[in-house]
Amino acid sequence: DTKNLAYLNAAEKGIAYILSAQYENGGFPQYYPNKSLYRAEITYNDNAMINALLVLYKVANKQEGFGSVNPIFASKAQTAVEEAIACILQPQVMQDGTRSIWAAQYDQETLMPGQARKFEPASLSTSESVAIVRFLMMQPVTPTIQQAIEHAIQWFRQHDIEGYRFDRIQDKLTGEHERKLVADSTSTIWARFYHLVDNRPLFGDRDDTVKYNFDDVSEERRNGYAWFGNWPEKLIEKDFPKWKKQHKIQ
Predict the structure, then answer these.
(1) Which of 82, 93, 194, 214 shows the smallest number of beta carbons within 10 Å?
(2) 100-109: burial string, b at 16+ Cβ within 10 Å, e else
(3) Tens digit of pLDDT for each residue in 57-86?
(4) How far apart are CA 176 and CA 63, in angstroms?
């Protein structure tokens, strides 16, 4: 806290901007006020909505210097966070009556999983779902939040890809580097996107097609997107057990 009023005013304007972007159903668009194309969708992609909520959470709880802002923002931020949590819990994708994880973006009106860029099809998204679970773990535990977290963890455990790593490999002939799946008995990864119904790993391309074999993806997209990663690993092995212990959950 520098006691500089210019900084405080700027922070309050930023908070007001975030609050004004929220939909009545609690979601946040990718862009605001520009809502053309997929920008209007409720967007977890690249943690857009969760990052906005982390700011509001700190405002509501007067953390990290936000206690200096006008008290009216704390009340508004708390309401915004509560409405957002309700929005987060509702569209967790159901599979055979069981919750799985979340899509990267949703239609702002129907809350159905949506497509963003041509290579980002409507699908389950592991990276973004990890951030959602971590945010839910920060909240007071309710039966609904507990169920959402536990079912997501269960899904992550069931759909890992063991024995491979996603790496940049140099071609011995051309000298160029290319991203490939490499056999590695010590590694566990997850695909970035999975089919909404049957949980097959899937990969989008710039021609608006969906591939189920990574080698079928165009060279440009294979090398230009994080198609695999270990995002849920720390969540499963450290964060989830710590959360259960903290809240005395069996």
Answers:
(1) 82
(2) bbbbbbbbbe
(3) 999 999 999 999 999 999 999 999 999 999
(4) 47
Residue 5 per-residue DSSP state: H
pLDDT tens per residue across span 213-225? 999 999 999 999 9
- Please, what sign has the CA dihedral across residues 157, 159, 164, 166? negative
The confidence score (pLDDT) of residue 176 equals 85
Residue 174's pLDDT is what?
Answer: 82
pLDDT at 1: 62
Helix (H, G, I), strand (E, B) or coil at 201: strand
Query: Residue 246: CB partners within 8 Å, gap ≥ 6?
Result: none
Q: Cis before residue 33, ω within 30 degrees of 0?
A: yes
What is the average pLDDT across 91-99?
97
Q: Is the pTM here over 0.85, yes or no?
A: yes
> How far apart (Å, rounded) are the C-alpha atoms in residues 223 and 180?
9
Distance, CA of 102 to chain centre? 8
Q: Which residues lie below 8 Å from residue 96, measured CB to CB, with a gap of 6+?
A: none
Q: How far apart are CA 133 and CA 93, in angstroms?
A: 14
- Read off the amino acid at residue 104: A
Going by C-alpha positions, the residue among 57, 50, 51 that lies closest to residue 77 is: 57
Measured in whole angstroms, the distance separating CA 204 from the mean position of its chain's CA atoms is: 18
